[in-house]
Design goal:
Layout (H helix, E strand, L loop, with lengths): L6 H4 L7 H14 L7 E2 L3 E3 L4 E7 L6 E8 L14 H11 L13
Length: 109
Amino acid sequence: MTRGRMVTQLRKYSIIDVQAAKEVAMVWLEQAQLQNAVTFGLPEVDDRYHVWRVPLLNQTGQERIGEVVIDARTSLILENKSGRAREGLWAAVEWHRGGDTMPLRCGIR
């Protein structure tokens, strides 16, 4: 490995840093109108699978409620790999606000 270069640069990923991963995830959240409902944990690159994983936390930032998985090469959201679909995130947000029991299909109790 070349000294001083990140793995994301060596592998020529489209998304090369944490800030870019957060920006892509934010676009996905904005499309679902969830940008103000969750916060980000620390994104990490998974160079084995060539993806970025961006954790989604509840508003207090204390509990993980899902993640956005992004193809590091193309910068596309991998909806089938993301922890929850947008509908599931809405249910998780409502549950954390004190709503009714979390639906089981969301995977959180």
